[in-house]
TrEMBL record:
Region forming the signal peptide: none
Protein name according to UniProt: MaoC family dehydratase
Higher taxonomy: Bacteria, Bacillati, Actinomycetota, Actinomycetes, Kitasatosporales
Pfam families: MaoC_dehydratas (PF01575)
Gene3D superfamilies: Hotdog Thioesterase
Domain MaoC-like: residue ranges: 33-135
The family this protein is said to belong to: Belongs to the enoyl-CoA hydratase/isomerase family.
Length: 166
């Protein structure tokens, strides 16, 4: 019986810096209208409990079903910041696309349009809406949206990123 080698031979053809998830692009390669989707995710009580622990937000609207009902909600409401977190660019391929030219995440804003509850499935997306050259850099503006399983827009917002130009 032959034993497998204990160490793989080094390859002269492999370069870690060339090991990319997707080909890197420049600011100039991006196009208004491009969409970067995140995988859909069905929220559970465990997600809400984990976020409550991390955020220290212990308002009863997030975990007390009776309190939520008495105050006009059909069920405990998922934390807004948790919903917003699903627009994180890292949940999409966008940071892989811009990895070599990324400078900083400049700003974000959002409006919560509908409640999200445990059991809802969220569909986040970032869509490039503007590309503004600024000297050696450029600002990419994206709309950030999240729809639920009923096709309702539950969050609408905007992100801005600073990228190096060629």
């Amino acid at each position: 019986m032959t034993q497998p080698p204990t160490e793989a031979p080094a390859s002269t053809d492999f370069a870690p810096e060339a090991f990319l998830v997707v080909p890197a692009r420049t600011f100039e390669d991006l196009c208004v209208g491009e969409v970067f989707r995140a995988p859909s995710r069905t929220l559970t009580d465990a997600h809400a409990a984990a976020f409550q622990t991390v955020s220290a937000d212990n308002h009863p609207v997030h975990y007390d079903a009776e309190w939520a009902r008495r105050h006009g909600h059909s069920a405990p409401v998922v934390h807004g910041l948790q919903v917003l977190a699903f627009t994180a660019p890292g949940a999409t391929l966008f940071p892989h696309v811009i990895g070599e030219v990324f400078v900083s995440f400049l700003e974000l804003s959002c409006t919560f349009l509908a409640e999200v509850h445990s059991g809802d499935t969220l569909y986040p997306a970032l869509t490039i809406t503007a590309l503004e050259p600024q000297g050696d850099n450029g600002v990419v503006t994206t709309s950030a949206t999240i729809h639920n399983q009923r096709g309702e827009l539950v969050l609408s917002g905007q992100h801005k990123y600073l990228l190096r130009r060629q």
